[in-house]
Design brief:
This protein is α/β, with parallel strands linked by helices and 336 residues long. The chain has a domain at 2-182 and 235-261: 3-Layer(aba) Sandwich (Rossmann fold). The protein is built from eleven helices and 14 strands. β2 (26-31), α2 (38-48) and β3 (53-56) form a beta-alpha-beta unit. α1 packs parallel to α2.
Length: 336
């Protein structure tokens, strides 16, 4: 199928574009380049050995988006576009609500006008808030204990899409709740290139390994975990990308929800140790105070995705660290 990929020039989007193409689909990338760059698309083309359709557009521009649908005639959409920094969302809530929610409304209106009702939505484990139990299943309560506007936008968009599917026949929607994407494509050509100080652990660790930053800050070592540091479910970005292809191939009428994770948690210190093994040196870190709102552990049960999508993560934390280090060491300044 021809797949419109909103936010397709970003970290996750580029890896999905590669996976889509390798599985016989044709990605059509739409991105406003606010947190990505055109050269990332060129790297995708280098990996695939062929051109990829690209449009620079903010999808809130419904006129421009309508024109893309008319010319490209996509048969399904994977919706990744949106702002994603938790801390920034607390400081700039209106920007996050405007960008994330209004872009989704603009998108589904244009999709409906063109009779395109197959949609994969990039949701997040943040919708679970403070977990009531672990591992998290898709039946766990959502919307309680969400601590930031970013998480609220994901929760609200999920509800908007459920209401849309209930009101209009023909929609086939998968809500994919990501846990913690890490790693890079095995070629080292594409990977995570955050603007400014990384918000997530793995790219920060990678930048310390590359000498761009002096020391890793570990927020708290008194949690009830294996070593006192926070535990998260880290999933290799290529496993995540393949999960989207599986979801696309198993769309059903209405709305389905899936966790995309490994089912296993890794601590902050375990990640630092694994990355040190990958780069061949011990990485410096310091223990600092906990951050408000941080949870001790979050990891999922991926069994529903395994049963219904025939998908499961196959790559390890060691694989993710190796691939992330290849990306970082061969692209020390990211995309240029």
């Amino acid at each position: 199928m021809r797949i419109l990929l909103t936010g397709g020039a970003g970290y996750i989007g580029t890896h999905i574009a590669v996976s889509l193409s390798l599985n016989g689909h044709e990605p059509i990338i739409v991105d406003d380049l606010s947190n990505s760059c055109k050269s990332a698309v060129s790297r995708v083309e280098e990996i695939l050995g062929k051109p990829v359709s690209f449009h620079e557009l903010d999808i809130r521009d419904s006129t421009g988006l309508n024109a893309i649908f008319e010319t490209e005639k996509p048969q399904a959409v994977i919706h990744l576009a949106g702002l994603k920094a938790v801390g920034e969302s607390v400081a700039q809530p209106l920007r996050y609500y405007d960008t994330n929610i209004n872009s989704t409304i603009s998108l589904v209106k244009v999709m409906s006008d063109h009779g395109v009702r197959r949609l994969i939505f990039s949701s997040s484990a943040t919708v679970y808030g403070d977990p009531e139990y672990l591992p998290l299943t898709e039946e766990a309560c959502v919307g309680l204990g969400i601590s930031n506007p970013y998480g609220w936008t994901k929760f609200m968009i999920e509800q908007i899409l459920r209401d849309l599917a209930a009101a209009e026949d023909g929609w086939q929607i998968s809500l994919l709740r990501y846990f913690n994407p890490v790693g890079a494509h095995e070629s080292g050509l594409i990977g995570e290139d955050p603007n400014g100080i990384p918000n997530n652990l793995m790219p920060f660790v990678a930048q310390v390994a590359a000498g761009r930053r002096e020391c890793i800050r570990v927020f708290g070592q008194d949690y009830d975990t294996v070593d006192g540091t926070g535990v998260r479910d880290y999933i290799h970005v290529m496993d995540l990308a393949e999960g989207h292809v599986s979801a696309l191939n198993h769309l059903v009428p209405g709305v389905a929800t899936y966790n995309l994770g490994t089912g296993t948690g890794s601590s902050v210190l375990e990640i630092i140790e694994a990355f040190g093994q990958a780069c061949g040196r011990t990485l410096p870190y310091e223990i600092v105070d906990r951050r408000p709102g941080d949870l001790a552990s979050t990891y999922c049960s991926p069994e529903k995705a395994a049963q219904e999508l025939q998908w499961k993560a196959s790559r390890t934390i060691e694989d993710a660290c190796r691939d992330s280090w290849l990306w970082q060491s061969t692209n020390p300044d990211g995309y240029l």
